[in-house]
Amino acid sequence: MNDTQNDNFATVASPTEIRFERLLPGPIETVWAFLTDSKKRGEWFASGAMELRVGGKVELHFKHSDLSPNKAPPPERYKEMDETGHDATLEITEIDPPRHLAFTWGDGSEVVFDLAPRGDKVLLTLTHRRIAKREDMVGTAGGWHCHLAILEDKAWGRVPPAFWDVFRKYDGEYEKHIPR
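-> C-alpha coordinates emitted (180 positions)
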Protein backbone atom coordinates (compact mmCIF):
# COMPACT_ATOMS: atom_id res chain seq x y z
CA MET A 1 0.00 0.00 0.00
CA ASN A 2 1.30 3.44 -0.89
CA ASP A 3 0.78 5.23 2.43
CA THR A 4 1.41 8.69 0.97
CA GLN A 5 -1.65 8.39 -1.24
CA ASN A 6 -3.80 6.33 1.10
CA ASP A 7 -3.35 8.69 4.04
CA ASN A 8 -5.20 11.48 2.20
CA PHE A 9 -8.09 11.87 4.60
CA ALA A 10 -11.49 13.21 3.62
CA THR A 11 -12.21 16.86 4.12
CA VAL A 12 -15.39 17.95 5.85
CA ALA A 13 -17.06 20.19 3.28
CA SER A 14 -20.06 20.96 5.53
CA PRO A 15 -21.65 19.48 8.66
CA THR A 16 -23.37 16.90 6.41
CA GLU A 17 -20.78 16.40 3.65
CA ILE A 18 -17.36 14.81 3.21
CA ARG A 19 -15.09 14.95 0.19
CA PHE A 20 -12.18 12.84 -1.06
CA GLU A 21 -9.80 13.58 -3.92
CA ARG A 22 -7.60 10.98 -5.61
CA LEU A 23 -5.35 11.37 -8.65
CA LEU A 24 -5.55 8.26 -10.80
CA PRO A 25 -3.98 7.23 -14.10
CA GLY A 26 -6.03 8.17 -17.16
CA PRO A 27 -7.62 8.29 -19.52
CA ILE A 28 -10.94 9.44 -18.05
CA GLU A 29 -12.78 6.52 -19.69
CA THR A 30 -10.68 4.08 -17.68
CA VAL A 31 -11.63 5.73 -14.38
CA TRP A 32 -15.27 5.96 -15.53
CA ALA A 33 -15.22 2.19 -16.07
CA PHE A 34 -14.06 1.70 -12.46
CA LEU A 35 -17.26 3.51 -11.42
CA THR A 36 -19.80 2.10 -13.85
CA ASP A 37 -18.67 -1.34 -15.08
CA SER A 38 -19.77 -4.11 -12.71
CA LYS A 39 -16.57 -6.13 -13.05
CA LYS A 40 -14.22 -3.14 -12.65
CA ARG A 41 -16.27 -1.65 -9.77
CA GLY A 42 -16.32 -5.07 -8.16
CA GLU A 43 -12.51 -4.98 -7.96
CA TRP A 44 -12.53 -2.11 -5.42
CA PHE A 45 -16.07 -1.48 -4.18
CA ALA A 46 -19.07 -3.61 -5.16
CA SER A 47 -20.17 -5.43 -8.30
CA GLY A 48 -23.64 -5.22 -9.80
CA ALA A 49 -25.66 -3.89 -12.69
CA MET A 50 -26.00 -0.16 -13.19
CA GLU A 51 -28.58 1.44 -15.49
CA LEU A 52 -26.69 4.51 -16.73
CA ARG A 53 -29.57 7.00 -16.76
CA VAL A 54 -31.25 9.28 -14.24
CA GLY A 55 -33.67 7.07 -12.31
CA GLY A 56 -31.70 3.97 -13.29
CA LYS A 57 -31.10 1.22 -10.74
CA VAL A 58 -27.73 0.64 -9.15
CA GLU A 59 -27.42 -2.92 -7.84
CA LEU A 60 -24.46 -3.33 -5.49
CA HIS A 61 -23.14 -6.62 -4.14
CA PHE A 62 -20.47 -6.08 -1.47
CA LYS A 63 -18.01 -8.84 -0.65
CA HIS A 64 -15.08 -7.07 0.98
CA SER A 65 -12.91 -10.15 1.36
CA ASP A 66 -12.92 -10.58 -2.44
CA LEU A 67 -11.38 -7.15 -3.19
CA SER A 68 -7.83 -8.49 -3.08
CA PRO A 69 -6.08 -11.81 -3.55
CA ASN A 70 -4.54 -11.06 -0.15
CA LYS A 71 -6.79 -12.27 2.64
CA ALA A 72 -7.42 -11.25 6.22
CA PRO A 73 -10.34 -12.15 8.47
CA PRO A 74 -12.97 -9.47 9.00
CA PRO A 75 -13.44 -7.88 12.42
CA GLU A 76 -15.93 -9.87 14.48
CA ARG A 77 -18.67 -7.24 14.02
CA TYR A 78 -18.51 -7.72 10.21
CA LYS A 79 -17.89 -11.47 10.11
CA GLU A 80 -21.43 -12.55 9.22
CA MET A 81 -21.88 -9.79 6.61
CA ASP A 82 -18.57 -10.66 4.98
CA GLU A 83 -19.36 -14.38 4.78
CA THR A 84 -22.56 -13.85 2.81
CA GLY A 85 -21.92 -10.46 1.28
CA HIS A 86 -24.32 -7.56 1.38
CA ASP A 87 -26.67 -6.24 -1.31
CA ALA A 88 -28.06 -2.77 -1.89
CA THR A 89 -30.33 -1.30 -4.55
CA LEU A 90 -29.85 2.41 -5.16
CA GLU A 91 -30.90 4.93 -7.81
CA ILE A 92 -28.92 7.21 -10.12
CA THR A 93 -29.82 10.85 -9.47
CA GLU A 94 -27.40 12.58 -11.89
CA ILE A 95 -25.21 11.38 -14.76
CA ASP A 96 -23.00 13.05 -17.36
CA PRO A 97 -20.67 10.38 -18.82
CA PRO A 98 -17.73 10.20 -18.38
CA ARG A 99 -17.44 13.08 -15.92
CA HIS A 100 -20.22 12.94 -13.34
CA LEU A 101 -22.23 10.25 -11.54
CA ALA A 102 -24.47 10.55 -8.48
CA PHE A 103 -26.67 7.99 -6.78
CA THR A 104 -28.70 7.59 -3.63
CA TRP A 105 -27.35 5.82 -0.59
CA GLY A 106 -29.45 3.61 1.67
CA ASP A 107 -29.63 6.09 4.53
CA GLY A 108 -31.06 8.96 2.46
CA SER A 109 -27.67 10.46 1.67
CA GLU A 110 -26.13 10.74 -1.79
CA VAL A 111 -22.78 9.78 -3.33
CA VAL A 112 -21.33 11.94 -6.10
CA PHE A 113 -18.32 11.12 -8.29
CA ASP A 114 -16.71 13.82 -10.44
CA LEU A 115 -13.87 13.13 -12.87
CA ALA A 116 -11.59 15.80 -14.33
CA PRO A 117 -8.59 15.24 -16.64
CA ARG A 118 -5.25 16.41 -15.24
CA GLY A 119 -2.75 15.81 -18.04
CA ASP A 120 -2.43 12.04 -18.42
CA LYS A 121 -4.14 11.54 -15.04
CA VAL A 122 -7.68 11.97 -13.77
CA LEU A 123 -8.75 13.73 -10.59
CA LEU A 124 -11.52 11.70 -8.95
CA THR A 125 -13.56 13.69 -6.44
CA LEU A 126 -15.96 11.69 -4.32
CA THR A 127 -18.49 13.69 -2.32
CA HIS A 128 -20.87 11.99 0.09
CA ARG A 129 -23.55 14.50 1.03
CA ARG A 130 -26.62 14.75 3.23
CA ILE A 131 -25.13 12.57 5.96
CA ALA A 132 -27.52 12.96 8.90
CA LYS A 133 -25.28 12.46 11.96
CA ARG A 134 -21.62 12.83 12.87
CA GLU A 135 -21.37 9.15 13.85
CA ASP A 136 -22.62 8.21 10.38
CA MET A 137 -20.09 10.58 8.83
CA VAL A 138 -17.25 8.94 10.79
CA GLY A 139 -18.21 5.45 9.62
CA THR A 140 -18.96 6.53 6.06
CA ALA A 141 -15.64 8.36 5.74
CA GLY A 142 -13.74 5.36 7.06
CA GLY A 143 -15.46 3.01 4.62
CA TRP A 144 -14.85 5.23 1.59
CA HIS A 145 -11.24 5.74 2.64
CA CYS A 146 -10.65 1.99 2.59
CA HIS A 147 -12.41 1.44 -0.72
CA LEU A 148 -10.53 4.33 -2.35
CA ALA A 149 -7.22 2.90 -1.09
CA ILE A 150 -8.07 -0.36 -2.89
CA LEU A 151 -9.11 1.60 -6.01
CA GLU A 152 -5.81 3.49 -6.03
CA ASP A 153 -3.81 0.29 -5.88
CA LYS A 154 -5.91 -1.34 -8.62
CA ALA A 155 -5.78 1.73 -10.89
CA TRP A 156 -2.00 2.00 -10.54
CA GLY A 157 -1.55 -1.72 -11.26
CA ARG A 158 -0.58 -2.72 -7.73
CA VAL A 159 -1.97 -5.70 -5.84
CA PRO A 160 -3.80 -4.22 -2.85
CA PRO A 161 -3.53 -5.55 0.65
CA ALA A 162 -6.51 -7.40 2.08
CA PHE A 163 -9.47 -5.05 2.49
CA TRP A 164 -9.81 -5.91 6.17
CA ASP A 165 -6.14 -5.05 6.81
CA VAL A 166 -6.75 -1.63 5.24
CA PHE A 167 -9.91 -1.32 7.33
CA ARG A 168 -8.02 -2.14 10.54
CA LYS A 169 -5.45 0.56 9.73
CA TYR A 170 -8.09 3.29 9.30
CA ASP A 171 -10.87 2.07 11.62
CA GLY A 172 -11.40 4.80 14.17
CA GLU A 173 -9.10 7.33 12.49
CA TYR A 174 -12.01 9.46 11.36
CA GLU A 175 -13.13 9.81 14.97
CA LYS A 176 -10.08 12.13 15.23
CA HIS A 177 -10.57 13.84 11.84
CA ILE A 178 -14.28 14.71 11.90
CA PRO A 179 -15.09 17.71 14.15
CA ARG A 180 -17.63 17.26 16.93
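The chain has a mean pLDDT of 94.
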